[in-house]
Automatic annotation (TrEMBL):
Homology family: Belongs to the sulfatase family.
Gene Ontology terms describing biological process: phenol-containing compound metabolic process
The keyword S-adenosyl-L-methionine appears for this protein: no
Domain (Sulfatase N-terminal) ranges: 29-372
SUPFAM superfamilies: Alkaline phosphatase-like (SSF53649)
EC supergroup of this enzyme: hydrolase
UniProt entry keywords in alphabetical sequence: Glycoprotein, Hydrolase, Signal
Pfam families, A to Z: Sulfatase (PF00884)
Presence of keyword Glycoprotein: yes
Any GO MF annotation of the entry: N-acetylglucosamine-6-sulfatase activity
Protein name (database record): Arylsulfatase
Catalysed reaction equations from the record: an aryl sulfate + H2O = a phenol + sulfate + H(+)
Known EC number: 3.1.6.1
């Protein structure tokens, strides 16, 4: 007894510590997910967001090799919220028939995407801001976006009206906010939902999707103007200039296809473009303040330690690189390598990870955090949170269907609205390992691009042109031609991959598992196998995913079949007809 009494305080303290940590770790974490619109990494926007740095970058992990898989808002967001590649969702554009909210609904995702899964996992789910394009003041309740405990969505055609937003709360009739700054309106709504979420027992997921720093678009005008900012930020960044990298408005044309035909931008345009960049940074200040507001509220309620905060963008942005007007839609690094910062339980503090990750991986990551089972049809894998967790992969599969869209005053010149570059459909591949860092793309015109991103991060020297292909240039000790043969075969797998063939594409080519990255595929014993592979090509530039126009679909498999050491790959019969599509849904109503 005496013994017990003496031991008790000690025991209790010990127990307390054990129980305390167990309780903390057993507590299901909350998730705040912030997604901006068209925010770049390469124009240095994050460096102008001091609160994002203070509360997120310094307290969490920055993923320097994070990529979107489609450089366009709506397809990218559908990719993110479903965990599926755009070629599997077939939501490939901002508008019907190839994309937009109606297409998302039509494809059955409104009852089968992340917020729905999180609710099933016991979460309260909230969303404010822009969900998808073509989510309008007419179709907002037909049906209401699924899976949310609380929602307040920005709606077209006012989504990009910085001072005349229109939002529908919980499926109710839209309310207009004339004269109020849209990112501030969204911030206030986010704080409201946060309060609501905190007052309930359940863990919560809150997505905050302000439009900054997207261009301003006024109803009725087909013009993308520089973003508007709040008056309190007008004095900022007067000296900012877009980084003068080698690809900044170069003297010689660069890129391929329509980009290689662009005239050099004159001083008037460059001056305008720098100011365009400043306007973007100012618009982002409202988001920066919102981040502080969120962290403050989590802190005040004592829940910051078991809340994950994600910060990312739907896609990147270019301004003047490769002589382009402001815009996205391209496969170049400015458009696809985007911000991702994560803080939360078990995430490295003040770390930079070089793991190769993409938006396809985020739904699996969030479900894993929620303690839910991952889905068999995910095309990605949870991202690592620390250096120690094994980095999953070397590749990112990038795709695009449709047009190139120049923005800004000068991008809008010509022909009664904005000039649109046709033939912007392409496939691209980022492949990054210890000894190689490559970008490979095949356009719908059959033009190809290959950049050695270690030596040429600005993508100025296309190695996939005839004179380079036969040059002495070596990548991982092999000629360009041999490297391209491997990349093309990998792209052949990825362009129609599903689930494990997306996460482990080499396994499709080499089912025995002896080849699992570029260096092992580059073995000269495989030269013949790769040379014989059908090549990625297009017969036509389409505005959507018309499989008949996209050339061969199936690579040869090593070790099967006779003369070329390969055999056409067949995963399952489902793979042959991957997408059922209900043609009868009336989209614009
Ligand atoms: C602002 O939005 C409302 C609809 O929400 C619309 O009726 C009105 O015309 C818009 N005002 C301007 C100046 O565009
Ligand atoms: C510069 O280029 C823009 C866009 O093409 C054009 O509108 C403008 O007139 C040009 N300015 C000068 C000074 O040439
Ligand atoms: C691309 O190449 C393929 C295979 O050589 C050919 O069938 C197709 O017509 C070409 N497409 C275009 C747009 O030139
Ligand atoms: C688009 O590509 C097609 C080949 O698919 C070509 O015939 C046409 O000239 C191209 N159009 C433009 C505007 O570059
Ligand atoms: C994608 O959707 C478009 C538009 O409905 C359709 O024409 C196309 O066949 C679909 N693609 C696939 C691969 O199902």
């Amino acid at each position: 007894m005496l013994f017990a009494v003496f031991q008790l305080p000690c025991l209790l303290i010990g127990l307390n510590v054990v129980l305390g940590t167990q309780l903390a770790s057993a507590k299901i974490p909350n998730i705040v997910f912030i997604i901006t619109d068209d925010q770049d990494l390469h124009l240095d926007s994050l460096e102008y967001m001091p609160r994002v740095q203070k509360y997120l970058t310094n307290e969490g992990t920055f993923y320097k090799r994070h990529y979107c898989t489609v450089a366009l808002c709506c397809p990218s967001r559908v990719n993110l919220w479903t965990g599926k590649a755009a070629h599997n969702t077939n939501v490939t554009d901002v508008l019907p028939p190839y994309g937009g909210y109606p297409k998302f609904v039509n494809r059955g995702y409104n009852t089968d995407y992340l917020p729905v899964w999180l609710q099933k996992a016991g979460y309260n789910t909230y969303y404010t801001g822009k969900l998808f394009n073509s989510h309008t003041i007419e179709n907002y309740n037909n049906p209401v976006a699924g899976g949310f405990t609380g929602s307040d969505f920005l709606l077209d055609p006012y989504t990009y009206s910085y001072y005349n937003a229109s939002l529908s709360r919980n499926g109710e009739k839209p309310i207009s906010y004339p004269g109020q700054y849209s990112p501030d309106v969204v911030a206030e709504k986010a704080f409201g939902f946060l309060e609501e979420a905190i007052s309930d027992e359940k863990p919560f997921f809150l997505a905050i999707a302000p439009i900054a720093p997207h261009s301003d678009v006024q109803m009725g005008k087909h013009q993308f103007s520089e973003p508007k900012y709040a008056p309190r930020h007008a004095h900022l960044f007067k000296d900012y200039k877009i980084p003068r990298t080698k690809n900044f408005n170069p003297d010689m044309p660069s890129g391929a296809n329509w980009i290689a035909k662009l005239p050099q931008l004159n001083d008037t345009v460059i001056e305008y473009n720098d100011e365009f960049g400043r306007a973007r940074l100012r618009a982002l200040q409202s988001v920066d303040e919102m981040v502080e507001g969120v962290v403050q509220r989590l802190t005040d309620n004592g829940i910051l330690d078991y809340t994950y905060i994600f910060y990312t963008s739907d896609n990147g942005f270019h301004i003047s690189q490769h002589r382009m007007h402001p815009g996205k839609t391209c496969g170049y690094e400015t458009d696809i390598n985007i911000p991702l910062i994560v803080r939360g339980p078990g995430v490295g503090v003040g770390k930079v990870l070089d793991a190769v990750t993409s938006h396809t991986d985020l739904a699996p990551t969030l479900l894993k955090i929620a303690g839910a089972e991952l889905r068999d049809d995910f095309d990605g894998l949870p991202i690592p949170f620390t250096e120690e967790e094994k980095s999953k992969t070397e590749h990112v599969n990038v795709e695009y269907w449709g047009r190139g869209i120049p923005e800004g005053k000068y991008g809008s010149e010509g022909g009664g609205g904005f000039t649109i570059y046709a033939n912007n459909t392409y496939k691209a591949l980022r492949l990054i390992g210890d000894t190689y860092n490559l970008y490979y793309s095949v356009w719908c015109t059959n033009e190809t691009e290959l950049y050695d991103m270690t030596r040429d991060p600005d993508q100025m020297h296309n190695l996939a042109v005839p004179e380079q292909l036969s040059s002495e240039y070596k990548i991982s000790g092999r000629n360009i031609r041999d490297v391209v043969a491997r990349l093309d075969a990998l792209m052949m797998v990825l362009k129609s991959c599903k689930a494990s063939s997306c996460t482990d594409p080499w396994k499709v080519l080499h089912p025995q598992g002896d080849v699992s990255d570029l260096p092992s595929a580059l073995s000269s014993r495989l030269d013949n196998f790769y040379e014989q592979q059908p090549k990625v090509s297009f017969s036509k530039c389409e505005l959507g995913f018309i499989v008949e126009s996209e050339g061969p679909q199936i690579p040869f498999v090593f070790g099967q079949g006779a003369n070329h050491g390969g055999f056409p790959w067949q995963e399952s019969s489902e793979n042959q007809n991957p997408l059922g599509y209900r043609q009868d849904w009336s989209i614009w109503t």
